[in-house]
């Protein structure tokens, strides 16, 4: 949807005003919303159109001020892989990399409890993760059997096992 | 290009075909968020990372498992004109955010446009399936198959406890967003809509306008979707959404029946006026277009208007958007010109028979 004032930029500010029972809706871009200051007496709305990430970071900041540990040290906690700090996460509402979930798990869990239905995934599991795990286990078992066969000088059996291992390894690549 | 040819070339399967309950449910959509293991999320990705992710996805889109699922094309955003990208947004194939990702964004699109995969949006991958009517389970099955096929050559960021890891913790776990686009003019006219919408939001579902997050509803179109992604399985999430959608459908049908019984003449007058305006007006803005189309569609569903296909709402709500209009008239149009051309396109379309368009 385009801004109804300039018809140029996308409308990102949506406001419904009700005055004496008369309802008026405005759909403006950020620029026009600021220029139309008198329409939006709420300074919070003018300076920073409401968006989800800001709501999320609001929740997160609430979290940090209610803790027992000093806020600054917690906020400076850093993900060892991508270097993102918890503070940065609260500002943009998005993590830097998959490892952030472990790096910030103690801070994350109260948040997940609030916005999700529990802390444990119960849905689909990556197929290949399961397959890879199975394959790895099977290879491990075959290698053990191979060692045993060699130790017991069952060379025919050992050759069979070696071929099977080779086939599985090639299939995995 | 004739209008019939343009319509044929432009509309996707979800606009063209019908489906269960499609007097009320326009589309069912499943979106899965996935990320690749060993790469930062797009928020922090360097040019090299983003390029590598794109290349890995391009290769995965060509693997044998994907070939079995249909004909896919990998398209980089930078190879599309801004107008074409905007058209993809208007057709609900990509998000406005992806359209902005000129440098690192890409789309993997199936030829019937039922499946679209966004690359380097908020997450590395957003797999989307969109089907006409109420077919959430089918859309989920298909999305899951595409997910499995891509996984033959990609390794996802997955956590034993948290599930599929996503840039934003609001998507973590299943990474699923199931949404249903509903046309609810009966509830809007009888005043039941606000009560219903607040009830829906209390059971963990979100209601949005058709332009997505934060947008107001136009043309009585609402998107209902799940918010929770962790702690419930995909099947539970879909079943929960389905049961709420079924209840909304029932209430909408009751509202329509009530209107026909108690306010028939007012209703007939309203939809017929809207039809007259669409058929003869010389200037139409997009908001009024959606409102009038909503009335006409209601009139078709209730048998008040005959000889016009019910698909007209889905078709014209997309074709009258700015990028589509400019594509059809093959030049840039000022907002004022657009209103004139939009009215013209609607008039022309209403005078065509459906066989001309859909063959």
UniProtKB/TrEMBL annotation, chain A:
Q: What is this protein called?
A: UvrB/UvrC motif-containing protein
Coiled-coil residues are: 132-171
Q: Domain UVR, which positions?
A: 136-171
Check the record and name the Pfam families matching this protein: UVR
Q: Does the keyword Coiled coil apply?
A: yes
Record carries keyword Coiled coil: yes
User: What's the source species' lineage?
Assistant: Bacteria, Bacillati, Bacillota, Bacilli, Bacillales
**Keyword terms of this UniProt record:** Coiled coil
Q: Which domain of life is it from?
A: Bacteria
Report the SUPFAM superfamilies cross-referenced here: C-terminal UvrC-binding domain of UvrB
Which InterPro entries does this entry report, sorted A to Z? Answer: UVR_dom, UVR_dom_sf, YacH
């Amino acid at each position: 949807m385009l801004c109804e004032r300039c018809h140029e930029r996308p409308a990102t500010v949506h406001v419904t005003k009700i005055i004496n029972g008369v309802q008026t809706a405005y759909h403006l871009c950020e620029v026009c919303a600021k220029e139309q200051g008198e329409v939006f007496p709420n300074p919070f709305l003018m300076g920073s159109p409401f968006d989800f990430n800001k709501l999320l970071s609001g929740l997160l900041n609430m979290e940090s001020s209610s803790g027992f540990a000093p806020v600054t040290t917690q906020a400076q906690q850093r993900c060892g892989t991508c270097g993102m700090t918890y503070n940065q996460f609260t500002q943009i509402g998005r993590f830097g990399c998959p490892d952030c979930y472990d790096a910030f798990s103690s801070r994350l869990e109260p948040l997940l409890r609030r916005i999700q239905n529990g802390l444990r995934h119960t849905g689909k599991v990556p197929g290949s993760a399961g397959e890879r795990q199975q394959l790895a286990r099977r290879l491990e078992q075959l290698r053990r059997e191979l060692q045993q066969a060699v130790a017991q000088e069952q060379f025919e059996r050992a050759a069979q096992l070696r071929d099977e291992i080779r086939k599985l390894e090639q299939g995995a690549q | 290009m004739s209008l019939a040819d343009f319509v044929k070339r432009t509309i996707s399967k979800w606009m063209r075909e019908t489906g269960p309950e499609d007097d009320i449910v326009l589309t069912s959509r499943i979106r899965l968020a996935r990320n690749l293991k060993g790469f930062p999320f797009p928020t922090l990705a360097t040019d090299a990372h983003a390029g590598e992710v794109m290349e890995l996805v391009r290769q995965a889109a060509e693997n044998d498992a994907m070939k079995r699922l249909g004909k896919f094309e990998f398209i980089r955003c930078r190879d599309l004109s801004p107008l074409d990208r905007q058209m993809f947004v208007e057709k609900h194939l990509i998000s406005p955010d992806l359209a902005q990702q000129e440098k690192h964004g890409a789309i993997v699109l199936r030829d019937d446009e039922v499946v679209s995969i966004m690359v380097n949006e908020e997450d590395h991958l957003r797999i989307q399936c969109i089907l006409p009517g109420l077919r959430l389970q089918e859309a989920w099955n298909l999305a899951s198959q595409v997910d499995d096929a891509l996984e033959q050559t990609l390794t996802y960021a997955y956590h034993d406890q948290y599930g599929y890891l996503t840039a934003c913790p609001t998507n973590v776990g299943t990474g699923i967003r199931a949404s249903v686009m509903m046309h609810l003019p009966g509830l809007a006219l009888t005043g039941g809509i606000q009560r219903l919408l607040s009830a829906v939001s209390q059971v963990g579902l979100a209601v949005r306008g058709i332009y997505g997050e934060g947008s107001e509803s136009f043309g009585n179109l609402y998107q209902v979707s799940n918010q929770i992604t962790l702690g419930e399985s995909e099947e539970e999430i879909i079943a929960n959404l389905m049961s709420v959608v079924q209840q909304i459908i029932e209430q909408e049908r009751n509202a329509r029946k009530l209107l026909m019984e108690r306010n028939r003449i007012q209703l007939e007058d309203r939809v017929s006026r809207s039809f007259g305006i669409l058929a003869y007006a010389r200037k139409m803005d997009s908001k009024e277009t959606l409102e009038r189309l909503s009335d006409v569609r209601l009139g078709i569903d209730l048998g008040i208007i005959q000889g016009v296909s019910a698909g007209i709402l889905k078709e014209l709500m997309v074709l009258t958007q700015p990028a589509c209009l400019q594509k059809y008239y093959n030049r840039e149009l000022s907002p004022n010109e657009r209103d004139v051309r939009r009215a013209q396109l609607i008039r022309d379309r209403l005078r065509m028979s459906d066989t001309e368009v859909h063959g």
